[in-house]
């Protein structure tokens, strides 16, 4: 990893961990370890009791964990911590593997770590010329370049519209398909050169970011993984246990909101025999929690963050 590729400062650290209502001896899960900031605070509050399982599928995150453990940082040398190198969509399977039938709380920070954007070799950012990879797990799955080469024009248009909310989705897809007929699109610069003329100049950077976001979501199957993880969390969390989730864009926020409201991604509330809504959670915060002005100034990454907290009934 390049030296400049550092991990992000944890967003809404106090608010999100406060929301977990940490209980001494409890079992907690951080499904987005990243640089370990949220995990470190959970471990500090557990004080050597209970257990924390932290997930991350990225090899860089695993190396960060190993480094901090060797240096004795963040409490990761304690016996009550387990690092799981895996996509969080397999949460339920891993908990069964470790013999855990129920947990007291789960936190997820769904943002992409700053180091992914700063590491030019990964292709997450249009700021650097790099191979179009975008895989969180570099061991598996299609790269962004392969998706641009293999998907149909309709499939690409759907991705750009659904995951990037781009009005130019059809034109972008048509332009890409026409260009790839002559030469594969393999680098970030090649994609930027194709897309730039189609984007309004007054919002070119914002729409370019949405284009790259859409590809990243598809490459990593982020929406499917999120739904699988939330379904597992809904099953695993004990009564009075907490679910604390930080989102950054409307697609994932809608899914989280629906799970907390109804226990499913569609937000369909079932009713019991007496017609009373049968919902798995009670919302702790009726309105989303956003970072303070001070945090937004100190950490630009936090500006689009929203925190939702719910308690299992």
Layout of helices and strands:
Elements: H1 13-20, E1 27-30, H2 37-46, E2 51-55, H3 59-71, E3 81-84, H4 91-97, E4 103-109, H5 114-118, H6 144-150, H7 153-164, H8 169-180, H9 188-195, H10 204-219, H11 222-236, E5 237-247, H12 250-262, E6 270-271, E7 277-278, E8 281-283, H13 293-298, E9 306-312
Parallel strand pairs: 1-2, 1-4, 2-3, 4-5
Antiparallel strand pairs: 5-9, 6-7, 8-9
**CATH H level, superfamily name of the largest domain:** Vaccinia Virus protein VP39
Counted by DSSP, the helix tally is: 13
The pLDDT mean sits at 89
Count of β-strands:
9
Radius of gyration: 20 Å
CATH topology of the largest domain: Rossmann fold
Task: Quickly count the domains.
Answer: 2
**In which order are the strands of the major sheet placed?**
3-2-1-4-5-9-8
CATH class wording of the largest domain: Alpha Beta
* Main sheet summary: 7 strands, mixed
State the helicity in percent bands: 40-55%
N-to-C SSE series?
HEHEHEHEHHHHHHHEHEEEHE
Bulk shape: globular
Q: What portion of the residues fall into strands of 2 or more residues?
A: 5-15%
The end-to-end span amounts to 43 Å
Helix/sheet category: alpha/beta
Describe the 3D structure.
With 313 residues, this protein is of the alpha/beta class. The chain is built from 13 helices and nine strands. Strands 3-2-1-4-5-9-8 form a seven-stranded mixed β-sheet, sandwiched between helices. A two-stranded antiparallel sheet has the order 6-7.
């Amino acid at each position: 990893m390049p030296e400049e590729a550092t991990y992000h400062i944890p967003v809404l650290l106090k608010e999100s961990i406060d929301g977990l209502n940490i209980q001494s001896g409890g079992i907690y899960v951080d499904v987005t370890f990243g640089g370990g900031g949220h995990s470190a605070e959970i471990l500090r509050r557990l004080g050597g009791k209970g257990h924390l399982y932290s997930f991350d599928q990225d090899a860089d995150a695993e190396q960060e964990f190993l480094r901090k453990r060797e240096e004795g940082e963040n409490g990761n040398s304690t016996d009550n911590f387990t690092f799981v190198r895996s996509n969080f969509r397999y949460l339920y399977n891993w908990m069964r593997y470790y013999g855990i039938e129920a947990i007291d709380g789960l936190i997820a920070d769904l943002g992409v770590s700053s180091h992914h954007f700063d590491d030019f070799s990964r292709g997450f950012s249009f700021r650097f010329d790099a191979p179009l990879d975008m895989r969180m797990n570099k061991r598996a799955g299609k790269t962004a370049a392969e998706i641009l080469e293999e998907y149909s024009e309709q499939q690409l248009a759907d991705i750009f519209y659904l995951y990037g909310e781009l009005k130019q989705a059809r034109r972008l897809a048509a332009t890409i398909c026409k260009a790839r007929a002559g030469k594969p699109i393999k680098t970030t610069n090649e994609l930027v050169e194709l897309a730039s003329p189609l984007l309004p100049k007054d919002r070119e950077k914002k729409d370019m970011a949405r284009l790259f976001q859409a590809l990243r979501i598809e490459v990593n199957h982020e929406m499917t993984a999120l739904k699988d993880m939330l379904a597992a969390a809904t099953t695993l969390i004990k009564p009075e246990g907490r679910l604390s989730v930080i989102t950054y864009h409307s697609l994932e926020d809608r899914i989280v909101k629906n799970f907390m409201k109804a226990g499913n991604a569609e937000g369909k509330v079932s009713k019991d025999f007496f017609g009373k809504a049968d919902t798995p959670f009670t919302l702790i915060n009726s309105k989303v929690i956003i970072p303070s002005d001070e945090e937004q100034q100190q950490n630009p990454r936090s500006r689009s963050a929203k925190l939702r907290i719910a308690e299992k009934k």
